[in-house]
Write a structure and sequence with these properties.
25% of the residues lie in helices and 29% in strands. The protein has helices at residues 2-23, 82-95; strands spanning 69-72, 75-78, 100-108, 111-119, 124-131, 138-145. With 146 residues, the protein is of the alpha+beta class. It has a domain at 58-145: Roll (Nuclear Transport Factor 2, Chain: A), CATH 3.10.450. It has a six-stranded antiparallel β-sheet, covered by helices on one side. The model has no long low-confidence stretch (mean pLDDT 79). The protein starts with a helix and ends with a strand. It has two helices and six strands, in the order αββαββββ.
Amino acid sequence: MITKLWTIILAALVGVFATWHSSQSITTPSPQPSVSPVPTVTPKTPPLPKEDKLIIPSPLQIWAYPGSTSVGDSKWQSNDPPQVITNWYKDKIKSQGMNATSFVQTNTNDNILNKLVGANGSMKVSVEITRASGISQTSISVVLDK
């Protein structure tokens, strides 16, 4: 008898719920286009360097042997063989339109001293390439005269 009573109560609740649920209208909002402001990007001009920090390439920089390490004003070192470095400087002197040239290469007991000089109407360059016997690094010195 108790189970019949629960069955009737349960059926009544289901009926009430079904009636209530069908009377509810479920509305789904339709998507609306939204307008968002587009951010404006204002380009920022980088600050100009201060005069004391302005870096101007020196004329000597074009005479630095590629891959060499600077060891002072107009002085570099490289692990390349002296003859390779000497040939690069010969080509560089000629490429700068220097027709008056002097190339002196010496090798005494594996001590290398090569002196190259080139000049045109406006400039003179002197290059000294040295490597002491038993030392792996070649030293390069460049002097420009205008």
